[in-house]
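Summary of Year 1 activities. Much of the first year was spent building the evaluation harness for sequence design. The harness presents a backbone, in tokenized form, and records the residue chosen at every position. We chose the following record to illustrate the format because it has been used consistently in internal testing since the harness was completed.
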């Protein structure tokens, strides 16, 4: 997967690597920042096995991967900038930093767990407690739904969506995770809230994720069956980008920082459904979005349609600006050091 680059930015057209495992959410974050920077980049997907996987991020890459050797997946010419996320990527970033030295500017998204010296810049969401001189924070995670992309998507509405009466409600479903459970009572509660929205003559744009249990999707489908709708069944092109762009209101389950942040890129009202569970980190994240004015808790019964607005959140752009500033400062310092001293 290759990014084309954008020469109008300080790092526009620079040679980049993004390093992640096979998780889509990880790749989305790195691509969002790489695209915002305008890099010309390639994706280096990693999949360590055995102890290297279990003990990531602390062990180095396996010897069998021949990191740095000519012809291996990780070999010179080194990138101008590398962006990585996820614990499985960290050994590769640390190895790259040792071999390439200051010629490669390194960025890690999310807490690497291996200290502040892991990369030149570390991004964490504001609800993470990691702080330091090279740490930058934003309210939401980076993604690829820039204002320009959403504006382009809104220029043309797919016929199937255009056929649905307004207001259109996008329902973005996650599923059980390490922090949240979706109990039978949770499913009934979400279904009841959506049924109350259906009674207000809305239409629905419904999309599950890979973690969405069949029972949850069935409950949502039953609650909305009397209204015009689109329910994506996982086949064909994913309509999720168009759902975000053309929804008048969004309902998102609280288990995904990525999905919630992408919904908040639209500037449209976002209701958050909180299933059983949670954590202090998720609580800080959702409380911050509530205070910002982007989201509200989904009530068990929606009695009337309300609307609110807020400045859309585009963290990838904000992160890119801070990376550029730090990269420019380092380049200026390097140039100053290379100048011959006064005679």
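For this record, the design step produced the sequence shown next.
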């Amino acid at each position: 997967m290759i990014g084309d680059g954008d020469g109008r930015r300080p790092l526009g057209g620079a040679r980049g690597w993004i390093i992640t495992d096979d998780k889509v959410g990880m790749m989305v974050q790195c691509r969002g920042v790489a695209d915002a920077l305008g890099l010309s980049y390639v994706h280096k997907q990693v999949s360590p096995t055995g102890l290297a996987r279990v003990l990531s991020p602390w062990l180095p890459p396996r010897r069998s991967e021949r990191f740095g050797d000519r012809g291996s997946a990780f070999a010179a010419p080194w990138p101008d900038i590398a962006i990585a996320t996820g614990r499985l990527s960290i050994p590769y970033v640390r190895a790259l930093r040792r071999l390439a030295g200051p010629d490669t500017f390194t960025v890690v998204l999310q807490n690497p767990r291996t200290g502040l010296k892991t990369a030149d810049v570390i991004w964490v969401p504001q609800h993470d407690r990691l702080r330091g001189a090279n740490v930058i924070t934003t309210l939401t995670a980076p993604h690829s739904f820039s204002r320009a992309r959403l504006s382009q998507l809104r220029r043309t509405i797919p016929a199937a969506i255009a056929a649905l009466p307004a207001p259109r409600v996008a329902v973005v479903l996650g599923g059980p995770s390490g922090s949240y459970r979706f109990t039978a009572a949770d499913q009934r509660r979400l279904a009841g809230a959506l049924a109350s929205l259906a009674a207000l003559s809305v239409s629905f744009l419904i999309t599950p994720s890979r973690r969405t249990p069949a029972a949850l999707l069935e409950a949502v489908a039953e609650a909305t069956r009397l209204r015009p709708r689109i329910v994506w069944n996982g086949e064909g092109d994913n309509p999720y980008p168009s759902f975000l762009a053309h929804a008048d209101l969004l309902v998102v389950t609280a288990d995904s920082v990525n999905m919630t942040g992408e919904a908040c890129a639209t500037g449209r009202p976002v209701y958050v459904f909180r299933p059983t569970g949670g954590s202090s980190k998720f609580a800080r994240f959702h409380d911050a979005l509530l205070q910002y004015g982007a989201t509200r808790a989904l009530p068990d019964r929606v009695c009337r349609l309300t609307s609110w607005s807020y400045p859309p959140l585009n963290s990838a752009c904000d992160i890119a600006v801070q990376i550029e500033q730090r990269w420019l400062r380092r380049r200026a310092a390097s140039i100053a050091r290379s100048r011959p001293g006064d005679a």
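The first strand starts at residue 15 and ends at 20. Quantitative recovery figures across the full test set are reported in Table 2.
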